[in-house]
Design goal:
The protein is mainly α. Among the domains are: 12-42, no CATH class; 65-123, no CATH class. The chain is built from six helices and no strands. It has helices at 12-21, 28-45, 76-88, 95-107, 110-123, 160-174. The radius of gyration is 40 Å and the shape is elongated. It starts with 11 loop residues before the first helix and ends with a helix.
Length: 175
Amino acid sequence: MAKTKITMFLDPELIEWLDLNRDEETSRSAYLRILIRKDMKSKSRRKTAPVATTNDKFSSPVITADLIPDDLKDYADLLIEWWTIRKQKGGSCTTSVANRIFKTLRSFPSQDRKEALEKAITSGWKDIYPLKKGYKPEEPKNHPNQKVFKASEVVLPPTLAELNENNANKFMEDF
């Protein structure tokens, strides 16, 4: 690699900065080369993000009620509130995602849709999940082997009041 010699004129404060920041063994010209190489490496690592202009109505963190399908208009306020949370949590917000969410909501029973949206909002979820029903299985009613306890069928020992003191001592000796 061929090198080209250049001459540079620096202000006194630039020279002072170079002298303060370089090692004692490094010359001013070597330190300038180091700075230039570092800058070149950092610029080569930086990737310029392509500027994408999108016409997607759902890419905004705030959606309006007119974007929500007619059959889900009853839940428009909850959907609008949840969409903002979804965007803040890093969820992708596109038309296809919105259609998937709408399809998921439609699959829920109508009485569970509101609860599912409220749970997603309070929990800060990026998606909507079906409600879980109770964890305990219901006990069967009128099971044929179900035994009913009746106190009248059980022989109980007499109480101390029934035995009185003399009989109680005799009763306890027998055991």
